[in-house]
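Key idea: predict the complex, not the pieces.
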Amino acid sequence: AVFYGRYLKKLSHKTQEAVGDMTKVAAESLSALRTVHAFNALAQEEKKFSERVAKVLTLGRKEAIASGIFFGSTGWSGNVTILGLLGYGSHHCWRLDELAAVHRLRWEWAQYAHTSIMRAIGAGTRVFEVLDRESLVPLHEGVELSPDRRGAIRFEHVHFEYPTRKDVKILKDFNLEVNVGETVAIVGESGGGKSSVHSLLLRYYDPNHGKVTFDGQGAHNTPKLLVDCAYSNNTDIRDFSATSWRRIIGVVPQDPVLFTGTIAENIAFGNPEATREEIEDAAREANCEFIWGMPDGFDTTIGRLSLSGGQRQRLAFARALLKKPAILALDEATSALDATSERRVNDAIEKILRSGQTTCLFVAHRLSTIARAERVIVMEGGRVVESGAYRELVAREGSRFRALMASQLSAVEQNTTTGDASEEAVEEYVEEFDEGRDEGVREVEVVEEKAKKY
Ligand SMILES: Nc1ncnc2c1ncn2[C@@H]1O[C@H](COP(=O)(O)OP(=O)(O)OP(=O)(O)O)[C@@H](O)[C@H]1O
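Result:
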């Protein structure tokens, strides 16, 4: 018992660690399931989890063998003793209930084993229920899309509600066309369904009515705001396999998720074959200069929250850019970033937008980001109510965009509850922005200069 105890103590410690590690991997992957899907990293995460499970299993087996030997031998000697006692007792014992007590002891053991088995079956049933669940969006069915395809994206009369909240219509006849290389910012009230547009684009869900299409033929000089969908050579994105469709999209979510591992591993998430050079290029492009200042650079191990909000966003940018995506879906962080981080994030956005290679559909909250888009669309009541260049919408008398910005301004800058801001205040806000924009462009040039030295 002493030797077994010592061995078990060591083994338990290791098992606890391994179980902790396994749970962490599962929790990280499950809580970031959208990111995992967006980067087609399901197989990678499954492999990571399987390795951890295998480790727990090996330790569990060792413990089972050790306890098998220990309890087997002690049980065997115990049984031999009891049998001996029974044999001996039957000669000497005249009271039947004494023998029955020994027998009852055996029976209780059998009951205990039975309860444990039943408990395991109960827990196992739930696990198998989860394992047997089929995704509503099949991952590998459909046409394989080549990763270098570029094309216009169209939302055609899309109606959508979440399966868990069928009574709330999120999108109602939503129509939008984004051409190749175009940058479109979606703005609107909080909770108006902007991020849901991304969810449909990435096929986390499919529309209830209408469709999202992709036209791999090239750019169109068609009207920007799609009213009448009279297109012929576009393909419903449901016809592509979800994995190959997601391969051409780079995603930067509102609250980017990091995984326990090195910075390089995080940038190469879903792209494990990427070379160090490619990783560094992506980091440079995304203004992640802070990595070079870290003690182990790209090999620095990070946890889920060990970087600041702005750094996390830029790292997520680098991760998205490494895919060299045809489409970039960016959901701007609503949480306040400090001024430097915000500028660095905006510079990174600016660089990508200026490249003209990538079609960008981004959900924007800050004026400084919105104004960087070629076209701004305003969402209200689940549909597009206004579309145009930033300057056009700002200049348009009584535009919804102006009203939206005015209420934002009054909420953010004047901190009032009235929701009204004067026209002058809006102009002032816009002027302030223009100064910031020029500064931003200069900043990008300085950074690019610096980047050459990395
Ligand atoms: N997974 C979900 N299941 C059910 N309802 C959801 C889900 N995700 C979002 N919603 C609801 O859908 C509506 C639109 O949400 P969405 O995130 O698209 O808005 P948003 O315009 O991006 O908001 P914000 O600007 O605050 O990020 C909200 O009312 C939200 O509560």
